[in-house]
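User: Could you check the structure of this?
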Amino acid sequence: MAVSPQCSHGQLARWVGVALLCLIGLLVAGCGPDPAKSSSSRDQSSASSAQHSASPSAPVLPRAVPPAADAGGICRKISYELIKRETGLSFDIAAFHRSKQPGGDAGSSVESCTLRSAQHQLPDLTLTFAAGKLDAKAFKERFTPQGAQDASGLGKGAYTIVHLAEPAQGVAAGPSYEVGWFTDAGSFTLVVTTEPRSDPKRSAALPGKLLALGKKLQTPS
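Assistant: Sure, the predicted structure tokens are below.
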């Protein structure tokens, strides 16, 4: 397995997705009640609450998780269930981002979808898609990271690479595992960034699992 310390196209998209997910977390946190008002309300209702303390509390309902497809764009191509089945990783938050494709044709864009868990910042998974006609040479020159190894059985050409641990958005991380491929539609990448001190055996299996996931994703959605 090739190992590279360099930042790839897929990693850049992943960092953008992580920033969006952090923003979502801040917005959700900002929607909470005012502590001062909450304290006043608790004081005013303490006597009433004591009278009803013997009453059974209402059951806590499980939080409904919107499907990843609700984030839009390339996120419509994946589901939490598919990711769990193919990689063993569990996610429940999705963020979509679209940006201009570097060096691409006018109007061309790059779409990315980053998944993570509400409970943990890592691991996370990012799917990136850059539309456009490619041949093997163009894919190699424009999208394949230096030091990547060729992979077979996925698209018209594919690669795998492991990136050394590198913090993103101030978050300590373990190695990132990347798989990229191209089809008649364009270029795809899948990147999983692991948590620090992640299980080496579990992480070593990720490239093969990402290749299998890529085969599922390249089918028409």
